[in-house]
């Protein structure tokens, strides 16, 4: 709660970044990890364009896979909210895929199905996750896992986006 007068005589710390901050995001579909040479080329181009040094650039590379889970969400009469259903689904995906829940983003699309985006720091990890999602037994294992918490939750199929393409996003902060 904000106060009208300071509650301490100790001043706040100075900002860690001063001046102009520029964020750039580039991305696209990939079939392999971006090489150190490709990342170096991106860095060199940014350095040339903005006239800055290496220590002024922060480069973050993230690999993403996405798709849709064809589901039948529990009805409100079952005593389960959409939020609770998505949380149970996220926990189950996290457990079965061996990823942290913060790497999973779920939302309900206009058809009532669940759109997923799973992120990873490496292409190889993203590929392994994609392979796991495509296994014949994954849907039934996921449904069984979710139904331990919400028995009325049904999962029909997983539909990967663009034939399972993995996207890369490079976030550059200057």
What features would you describe in this structure?
There is one protein chain. This protein has 174 residues and is an alpha+beta fold. Helix content is 30%, strand content 29%. It is built from four helices and six strands. The chain has helices at 36-50, 82-97, 123-134, 138-147; strands at 23-30, 58-72, 104-108, 114-120, 154-160, 166-173. Strands 1, 2, 3, 4, 5 and 6 form a six-stranded antiparallel β-sheet that branches. α2 packs across α4 (138-147). The mean pLDDT is 87.
Structure characteristics:
174 residues; alpha+beta; six-stranded antiparallel sheet
Brief overview, please?
The chain is of the alpha+beta class and 174 residues long. It contains 4 helices and 6 strands; from the N terminus they run βαβαββααββ. It has helices at 36-50, 82-97, 123-134, 138-147, and strands at 23-30, 58-72, 104-108, 114-120, 154-160, 166-173.
The radius of gyration computed from the alpha-carbon positions, rounded to a whole number of angstroms, is 21 Å
DSSP summary, beta strand count: 6
Major β-sheet, in short? 6 strands, antiparallel
Span between termini: 33 Å
The share of residues in helices is: 25-40%
Ranges where pLDDT stays below 50 over 5 or more residues in a row are none
List the secondary-structure elements in sequence, H or E: EHEHEEHHEE
